Amino acid sequence: MTAATPALEIKGLQKSFAGVRAIRDLSFTVPKGHATALIGPNGAGKTTVFNLVSGVYGIDAGSIHVNGTDITRMPSRQRIRSGVARSFQNIRLMGHLSVLENLLVGQHVRASSLCALITPYRLIPNHKWKREARRALEESGLGQYADETVGALPYGVRKRIDLVRATLAGANVLMLDEPAAGLNPSETNALRDHLKALIASGLTLLVVEHDMHFVDSICENVVVLNFGEKIAEGPLSVVRKDPKVREAYIGSDEE
Amino acid sequence: MSGYLTGVLVVLAFNVMAAYAVYLPMAAGQLNLGIAGFMAVGAYAAAYLTNEMMWPMWMAIPIGSAAAGLVGILIGIPVLRTHGIYLALATFALGQVIAAIFLNLEVVGGAAGYPVTEFASPYVVFAAAIGVTLFMVLLSRTRYALYLTAVKSDPTVADLMGISVRGIQVSAFALGAAVAGFGGAFYAHHYNFIEAQHFSVLLSVYTVLYVLFGGTQTVWGPLVGAAFFTLVPELLRASEQWRYALFAMFIIVFMALRPQGLITASLFRIFRRRPKAAAGTEAQGKGASA
Amino acid sequence: MLTQQIINGLMLGAIYMLVAVAFTLAIGVLNFLNFSIPGLFMLGGVATFGFLKMGWPFLLAAAGALFIAALVSLLVERLAYRRMKEGDADVPLVSSLGFLVLLENLVLIRYGSDQQAFPALFPDMNLRVGGLVIGIVQLVSMAISLGLVAWLSWFLRTTNAGRRIRTVAENRETAMLMGINIERLVPQLFVCSALLAALAGLLFAINYQQVTPFMGEGIGFKAVAAMIIGGMGSIWGAVIGGLLIGLAEVLSVSFIGADVVNITVYGLLLVILILRPQGLLGRPPAREKL
């Protein structure tokens, strides 16, 4: 694996649902250590791309490489081990577990030995897994929620916990599905700082997001999807002027 | 200890073991309506070993439990392809088939029942129940228990987090079967007689009822459920029929009012909140400086 | 001999068929595995028996029994089904099992656990066709069962009310958007399925001239097997499954022995659940979306 190997490389991706072509011959790469945005009007297939990369659905044709490893035929369960983790648009946290417990689930890939599985960590005060999860929460300014039941927390907090959980898998590529959706301005600022810190620490981000100011402040490159097809790629300032992109957004008022 | 009290406590011990056998797979989202079948496997296997092979009890009982666990793995692998109602029905059918097989197995007495020679004293039974409880409490403090809940509440996300959903499901099913077999093996050696009719669907159903009554979110729920089911009717001095009728009525009303069960995780967190708040900030301070 | 056994099997199968249709209505439309149905089946027989003992004329006694079963079913709807949205998905199933246990034990307290002789209401007349003996009563009750199921199927297919029910079965949200009053429809379905089950219990009591508190279990649980084998939610599937189970039972009793019935019936259920959970006529279950 050389420095030139892209973190995520998608080639000729095809996917149909019941005869409807959701993704058509999609190819793009996400360079290491940078943030790339996946944008497009509603229903363009952005979340579907995440689902195909994480293996929720099998693909019809094409290939997916993560850090140079071909994960096209890999079972969904093993993909996170190849270095790609994700968050969810509709926050999929386990509602009646505590915040800390949800984060511990996120650590699984790095703690999957039989020994880690049957260590009664809850009886050991300040066990390293709990300590690490707490620290991750602290760093994103959510430390006070560690022992709360997730289901009872406000939307913005849950959204950000979903993100923290994705970071704990130790993956170097994070796919974030609308991380800023539903956040208030101060939460959005905190999120921006958090993501910048993640990029600075060497992580690669692929972000689906509707808030173009947010995209502009984080991502160097954008890939624009419409009806499952890539219609433009490049820096946001350039892509913005592309007539095809303007056309795709007509009626839905850019941003 | 009076004979009466000992008798009640022995019943409690067996109910606690049965409750944990139901609880384990249920924590992973599986409703096992055939747990009595696995008790029968443990009971008959252990009894056969002490009766016919002259094994000592302390060897026969773990092997009986392991036999039930093995049956759990072998059957769990195909049966756990089904979910929800289908799984509940499959385990239900399974319990019926296992009981019917022992009913027809002449080598262990068939329909006439099977007398068992070795005797396990009440204290041995108490020790077994306490052992099972301690094991379950310890297990509930591990990542394994956390993954059971994760697989139950969102199998898709658990899978994407890299957890082997199928491995967790099959192991929970088999471990529950092994605990059932453990209890069954002690049952055989305490009462010195087993018959296939005892391991009926209703035995499974009662067990499921009191586990759900206690609540499945924490490891204490089954214990409370079993204790309630065993002790309260004794205190009321109710007859056998009134005991079940009252309990059923109670379950129905209770499930309508509090479907999550008596003991829940958030209940514990409310109790723990205050002392934890101080300890929490301290730990966070350490974490930040490290 | 074989033909005679086949006829007997179909007669018994007709009873299973009615109960299986009762189950399939609850599960196909409401997605509720209603385990109180065996209890309602038993009520149909036992309550008629009780009223007859009080000196009521047969038709009044039968109507009274059906009325009681319908009332109990409404209670099940109130206390078990309505709570479905909260808590575990298994809670309504378990609550309905609670109802089964309650009904059985209440009847047990009233009439004891012994088998009670149900009076012979009709003169024992038989048709003899070339060495075959066919009881007139059995023939009439089979005709009633088949007629009722055929009518129900016609009703669901062609009437407006039937279309509404099928819409709810397809998709609750769509049904609600179309302005179908689900709040009213659900209790009606519960009554309908209770009447089917209780009528089956009544026919069973008349045909076999006996009632016990536990008569619902054997029949009701096998009817569940029949429903699954035919395909959940399909009326004609329940018919085929019911007749198949009736045949399998009578044939295995006469050719292998009474004790293996449970192995054949529930073994068949287990195999179907693993290999083809949608049954013979059912559609495959829908998959989860992310």
UniProtKB/TrEMBL annotation, chain A:
Residues 8-252 form the ABC transporter domain. Keywords: ATP-binding, Nucleotide-binding, Transport. It holds the Pfam family ABC_tran. One of its GO terms (cellular component) is plasma membrane. One of its GO terms (biological process) is L-isoleucine import across plasma membrane. CDD domains: ABC_Mj1267_LivG_branched. GO terms for molecular function: ATP binding; ATP hydrolysis activity; L-isoleucine transmembrane transporter activity; L-phenylalanine transmembrane transporter activity; L-valine transmembrane transporter activity. PROSITE patterns: ABC_TRANSPORTER_2. This is ABC transporter ATP-binding protein. It comes from Azorhizobium oxalatiphilum.
UniProtKB/TrEMBL annotation, chain B:
The gene is livM. It is a multi-pass membrane protein. One of its GO terms (molecular function) is branched-chain amino acid transmembrane transporter activity. One of its GO terms (cellular component) is plasma membrane. It is found in: Cell membrane. The chain crosses the membrane at residues 6-24, 31-49, 55-77, 84-103, 123-139, 170-188, 208-232, 244-268. InterPro entries: ABC_transp_permease (IPR001851), LivM-like (IPR043428). The keyword Iron does not apply. It holds the Pfam family BPD_transp_2. Keywords: Cell membrane, Membrane, Transmembrane, Transmembrane helix. The keyword Transmembrane helix applies. This is Branched-chain amino acid ABC transporter permease.
Automatic annotation (TrEMBL), chain C:
It comes from the Bacteria. GO terms for cellular component: plasma membrane. GO terms for molecular function: transmembrane transporter activity. Its main location: membrane. It is a multi-pass membrane protein. Keywords: Amino-acid transport, Cell membrane, Membrane, Transmembrane, Transmembrane helix, Transport. The chain crosses the membrane at residues 6-25, 58-81, 93-112, 132-156, 185-206, 226-248, 255-275. It is found in: Cell membrane. One of its GO terms (biological process) is amino acid transport. Belongs to the binding-protein-dependent transport system permease family. LivHM subfamily. This is Branched-chain amino acid ABC transporter permease. It comes from Azorhizobium oxalatiphilum.
